[in-house]
Each structure stands twice: as structure tokens, then as C-alpha cells.
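[09:14] KT: can someone run the structure on this one? pasting the chain below
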Amino acid sequence: MRAVIFTSPDRPIEIVDVDLADPGPGEVKVKITAAGVCHSDLHVRRGEWQPPVPLVMGHEGSGVVVQVGAGVSGLVEGDHVVLSWVAPCGQCRHCRAGREARCQLVATVVSPGGVLHDGTSRLSRDGETVHHYLGVSSFAEYAVVPASGAIRIRDDAPLDTMALVGCAVATGVGAVTNTAGVEPGSTVAVIGCGGVGLSVIQGARLAAAERIIAIDVRPEKTALAMRLGATDQIDASGVDSVAALLDLLPDGVDYAFDAIGKTTTTEQAIRMLGLGGAAVIVGLPPTGARASFEPLTLAEADQRILGSNYGSVRPAIDIPALVDRFMAGDLLLEELISSRRPLDAAAAALDELEVGQSFRTLLIP
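[09:31] RB: done, C-alpha cells below
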């Protein structure tokens, strides 16, 4: 099959032919309908994260099950699925407690190891092992994934658009509803209005937040945020975003979401908080990045800093529910898609994301 291969930050990504083995026990093979281009893919290409290489890129996607491995129940050929890069083992203490986003197997095997649950890869090229990215590798014509990472969805949902639910939407909406538990009437600030940040804004709207302040350096992004549920916007390209927010809400906000993950934006989110507020770190920084805050202020104001991995989602429950919200008209997803492009355009799509020219590009193999 054709796939996007990454080998080194010093070399361009390539579209090459790779071999994909049949699914093993507990796995399924999925024909990719669409794959979303995410900032996590940029971290890899920049060399800010260092997974095993070579690897097939991509972790956000949707498709159709075309082959089922031994022992798989609940999925059959022809099922429409959204791929979840958290494919919970179902056995560790976090999975048993319903906290699948903290799955210990995912944390220790899939993410750093570039392999599937059994510790091996289904990908190869000329006899050399090629690694999976976050257990998915969706920048390809097909993917073999753990069955728990292929979430069956309703057949009438537009399958290419549903790729977004597998990362951006689940991460953003989940950060609001699961990680933070935003209450009706709350005040919310969202730093960064890309695919994840815009999903945070929609999650805050669905949670009935009273004020939702969208913050970005590109005014076209905050303008879209206003269409999706923000009540106020701040163009951070020419102002201090913390000062501008405090002009709007002198007492600070109840929740500040950093949907970018830079040291500066994390520190800004903390400084935007009011009494009892929570800063939620949703965007992922480069490995080794450090942010600072004043512990005394945090303690005296009864504030919190929360990390949100994949929106604290329960994939098998939350992903179909998000698809239902889209089909009911509550979630707007088509507006998040900048373009649909062929697999050969992966490098260009990453370039556009690098400079902030796109929200979400879908690669259509």
C-alpha cells in the first residue's frame, strides 16, 4: 500500500509503498477514508518528539473495516469506524475504573514503542520494520489497529468528516466535559483556535458557558470561533492577551484552556484565572518544555492546573456520542475542514499547518 513515511527531521517525508501484514488476534484492518493532519504530526516532523523511526505518520482517521482478526467481537467487515489513538486494553486499573485515556498499556507500549499491543509492528518495507505512529498510522491507504481503537459509528454519518472526531473533536470537547467539567454559566478562555481549540469552544457552548473568549493571533480563526459559539474574541497578534482578557473580565475566568501547548500560552492560561479557576493544558508541547507559575497565588486563589490527555475520553462511549451530536446539528465539523487533499499533499498540508494557514486538512487516500 501507499503510505507517508517519516525517517528524520533532516529528510523530507516520502510517499512510498510499504507492506502491511494481516491483522493479528484482537486486531482489525481498516481501509482509510480520511486522515486529519494534526499538530502532533508536526511535533514529529520537527524532531520535537522522537518516536521510533521509520514510521508511517498520522493518528486521526476514519474508514471501513475490511478484515477482522481472531477473537474480535463487536466489529465485522463493512463497519464504519473512527480510529482512536487510545486503544484501551480494558484490563489495567485505569481501564477498569472507566478512565481509558490513562490506559497503562497505551502509555507504556503503543505511544513510545511504535508498535501494537503485542509489542510488534504490522508494517515493513523491504524487510525492514516500519513503526506505527500512536498505534494508528492513518496517512496510508490501510491501517491495522487494535479492535478497541476502531470505534464503530452509525452508517449514515459522513465518514470522511468523522475523521476529525478521532482526535481534534474528542480532545477539545472532552477537555471541557470530561477533564474540566465546565458548569453552566461559567466563564471560559480558549488560547488557540485551530482544530482542537475550536472544538474546545464548541464544547464550552454545549456546556452552556456564559462567556467564551476566543484568543488567537490570526483574526480569521477567532472570527470562525465566533460562529461556533464564542461570545468574545481577542486578536493576540498586537496585544497582551492576558491584559486584554482582564479588560473584558476583570475577575478572570473560571476556566482557561491552552489549546496550543507553548510555554508562553500555558503561563498565560494560568494568569487568566480568577478565584477557584482551572487552567487546562490541552495542546501538547515539545518534549522537555518547562512553564512557570507562582505557587502562592495558585494556593491562595484555590486554583488548579489540569492536564488533559485526549480529552479524558472513553473512546467506545464518547466517540459515537460525539458523532450523534454532529448528526443532531449540535456540533459543527465541516466548518473545521480547510481542504480535502490527496495523500501526496501530506507535506504541503503540514507546511500550511506550520504557518497557521489551515484549521484541519483531510488527506483522502
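[09:33] KT: thanks! Residues 99 and 314 are 7 Å apart (CA to CA).
[09:34] RB: yep, looked fine to me
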